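[job 4471] stage=fold_predict status=RUNNING
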Amino acid sequence: MSVTGGIVAFAVIWFVCLLVILPRGLTTQAEAGDVEPGTPEGAPSSFNFGRKALWTTLLTVVLWAAFFTVLEFELLTMDDFDFMMPPTLRSDAKL
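[job 4471] inference complete, writing C-alpha cells
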C-alpha cells in the first residue's frame, strides 16, 4: 500500500467510525429537562467533540492496522472470495 493510499484509507475509516461513535452517549435537551429557547428538543444538552474525536482516532488506528496487515501480508486474496463469483468467472472454471 502506498503512503497516499494509507492516508486515504485512514481518513475514510476515521469518518465512518466518527459517524458510528457520534450518537453514542448523547443526552438530548429534552432528556436532560433543560430545553434552550429556539433550539429543538433533540439537540444535545452537552457535547464534547474532543472526547468523541479521541475515541474515533483510537478505534481507527486499530481498524486501520488490521486493514494494513491484511493487505500488506496478503492474508486475503481475491481467490478467497471465489465462491461469490458467477461460475463462469471463477478461477477454477472449465470453459
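[job 4471] summary: The two ends are 34 Å apart (CA to CA).
[job 4471] exit 0
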